[in-house]
Write a structure and sequence with these properties.
Helices cover 27% and strands 10% of the residues. The protein is built from 5 helices and 7 strands. Strand 5 and strand 6 form a beta hairpin. The mean pLDDT is 91.
Amino acid sequence: MTTVSSTNIDEVPGIIDAVVAAGANVFAFARYCPTSEEKDVGIEPLRYRKLLADCDKKFKEYEAAGCQTYFNKKDHLWTLYGYETGAFKIPEAVEDGMIYGGCNCGNCHLTILPTGDVYACRRVQNSKVANVFTDRLADVWVCQMEQYRDYTKFEKCSKCELLAFCRGCPAVASGKDGNFYAAEPQCWKEVKNDA
């Protein structure tokens, strides 16, 4: 696993070569989530798209050569890239209001720290929702986690046809200004604004 930021983005293709040469079973990368001191990962959206294109090409070349490393396309923006390149198609039978992929915060995961603190997402600093030593986990899932399930609040993604499949990384958006539902900073897709 590699964490990508503006500091090392140009090194990622070489890292792929190194992990393949080392015989790694799996390789993936995700973007750096800004902290309270740093407010941006410093990657322009089209630069990040270029990274995905470069990596996709490299992954395909290795796979065609019989490489045994599995390339896990963990970042949700792979869905957008795949949609643009034809590798991902929206299924014909899609139910309104259903979430089929993308960020699983509020959908099927949460984080419990050794202290018992429960976070909606391990990457979102301000997402503490409870503590397992004082709160019933089933109640936390049904009640406190509900605030992370209002997909209409996504400022940009709610207007996109990929809402049920992508939503980028709300942790990266939240790290920038504390707004979980803010526009995904590295998303390059333009969406219609109905306002």
